[in-house]
Amino acid sequence: MAADPPLPPPIAAQLNHLLAYSPLPVKVEQMWSGCRNGRYCDRFSLLIPFCLDYVKWEVIFNAYHPSAVPDFIFSAEDAGFNPLLEAHEREAHLNGLSVMSPLVDWNYKDPSRLLSLIFQFRDSYINYQKKRAQQVDDERMSFEISTVLARKGTEVSVASFPDRDEVKFAVPIPELEFNKLVTPCPWKQEQKIYLQAFFVVAKGYAMTPPVPRLKLVSTQDLKPFLNVEDIKLAPWSDQMCMLTYLSDLEVMLNDQVVEAVAGVAKRRRFIEALSPFFGRPIEADPVFCRRASVLGISGVFSFLVHFSIPPQFPNKQPILKLESTQHFNFNGLPIVSSPINDYPWSPRWDNTTMAERIYDFLVEECLNFKKYCNDTIPTAQ
Question: Any residues with CB less than 8 A from the CB of 246 and at least 6 apart, and which?
Answer without folding.
Answer: 148, 151, 171, 173, 195
